[in-house]
Amino acid sequence: IRCWSNIPFITVPLSRAHGKSFAHRSELKHAKRIVVKLGSAVVTRGDECGLALGRLASIVEQVSMLQNQGREMMIVTSGAVAFGKQRLRHEILLSQSVRQALHSGQSQLKDMSIPVLEARACAAAGQSGLMALYEAMFTQYSICAAQILVTNLDFHDEQKRRNLNGTLHELLRMNIVPIINTNDAVVPPPEPNSDLQGVNVISVKDNDSLAARLAVEMKTDLLIVLSDVEGLFDSPPGSDDAKLIDIFYPGDQQSVTFGTKSRVGMGGMEAKVKAALWALQGGTSVVIANGTHPKISGHVITDIVEGKKVGTFFSEVKPAGPTVEQQAEMARAGGRTLAALQPEQRAEIIYRLADLLTDQREEILLANKKDLEEAENKGRLALPLLKRLSLSTSKLNSLAIGLRQIAASSQDSVGRVIRRTRIAKDLDLEQVTVPIGVLLVIFESRPDCLPQVSALAIASGNGLLLKGGKEATHSNQILHRLTQEALSIHGVRDAVQLVNTREEVEDLCRLDKLIDLIIPRGSSQLVRNIQKAAKGIPVMGHSEGICHVYVDTDASVEKVTRIIRDSKCEYPAACNALETLLIHRDLLRTPLFDQIIDMLRVEQVKIHAGPKFASYLTFSPSEVKSLRTEYGDLECCIEVVDSVQEAVEHIHKYGSSHTDVIITENEKTAEFFLQHVDSACVFWNASTRFSDGYRFGLGAEVGISTSRIHARGPVGIEGLLTTKWLLRGNNHVVSDFSEHGSMKYLHESLPLPQRNAN
After folding, report:
1. Nearest C-alpha neighbor of 732 from the set 746, 712, 711
2. Domain 324-416+431-533 class, CATH top level
């Protein structure tokens, strides 16, 4: 705990030997000394007269938060000229209006022209006001700020440079935020092409070069340059083909076309890049990002420090493989080639992958053994997750069987005609199935998921990006290699990509221009996080698996305990395991009820009592904290209902629309339950555990969806397809179908082509 102005705050452990910049974004959270450069476009309003106060307040809040974590923050700011321009304009207008009123002898004012204001005069008038504003804002967070004005001479004169360095270090030692600006009141006009003079000398022409020089002088860990563009693009922003560059490496500037500079300020993007590269050579990491966007400016600085994919990160370490953006583009191109193959060719790929799973069994199990040993040594996985991580010969054999089912059932999945309509004579319309595009599947601890999902993507002609957990690294790598080996037999190796870079899941969820559907497979927390992080990309899945079994008064004694045991105890960590057992009130204190309780005790299932069930008992088990709980373990809730209608109402109120079951011999009651429960899967006298793509005969599943559009329940090949419309005409135009036109709409349904019987 550190204290300043009697206010304690938590510090984070930050230590790093300066001299080499960070290689990856994920390392930025270790930055201790940070310079934030605020461009003129960030600080000033759109009319260039006055400051963007809301934006500035948000930046001060973020800087204060990082300062209170124990970091050493410095700000290089623009804005004095704009603030001074606002003040001088006001003074000139006021002066002119007084003179005019005195001269004319009346209060009516004529049009007044404002002379062009000299920038140095504006800077002189605006510096004090700008600093007063910063001081007032930082005071709200019990932080002191100090102003430092510099010129180029302060860096070239050795004594002045030492004095500046000493002053800054002393301010940082006292937990004061230095606010640095060029002394625009006295600086000479900028000279063209004098931004940077080699590696050891940098000319302080603008605040970009000032920030870079300061960052290197002060051995800063991170320089954040905020401007009015998202970062560095491979061509001028706004052009059709412009793409944001996530990571920029020294030497890449030859492939970049620079546009014009921002609406205000001295430096354009070219100056920022030169300054950033100079700072990078001096051992300071650099990120250029947008500080003006209303949706991100409120957290852009903290996001950068947390390692999120914001703006352009400058790095000297080039990754060995492609970036995730390049992988997504490769997956899309490969997916389109895959979709163009004949169905038999796609099936051949899947059959080949099934063979490889059994042929390369020993190599796969050896890689999986490494993952298990590392997970056990680190002790980071709970027992249920370790079970999911584990592969075995029987699991691989089951996987191979499932893949062959997918291959056999995928013969006419893509390009299948599902509707034909004759719009008019010689004008026929077809609706056909097509792949969705590029799928991103994120999965935890389950390497067996990789070949399953890959096979479904191949069968449906989709490109695929896979992001597995670190705990299954070795298993995932060999399974992906075998998948690409199978794809290679028809030249579509790139259609399935495994993301091995240090991409955070949240960053992947922002690639809305590259990814068409996200499918999370893992804990409910993972699914919720992805649903929250996804920006403009639909997410298929379920956040919780709160599955119910309702035992009716007409339930069979023999069926009840078997179905409940299987639903709860066969695999309690599964999303389709029983979590809440609903029992009809008339069954309390009956032999059947006693058998249920005895069976659960024998299986060591911990029982939580619902409110109504607890009210019937003198000594009840622990009362449930919430009826909307997914235990994922040998635990369940028991609650009492008065009727099948009440059971349905309970499921709708507390369930997750996943899988719900009724046990009864009364067909009328069962049909009522089946028709009225609004869940993805509703069963009669069958275990909840049947809610599974393999058990449904789909071969495998990419997950279970509880959404109400597109796919629902276990999602196989059909759930990874969408449709497009094909219209074949012969010189048809809409005007021919007007009231006085020569043609009439027919809208006749046509027979569908015969499906492949195989």
Report:
1. 746
2. alpha beta
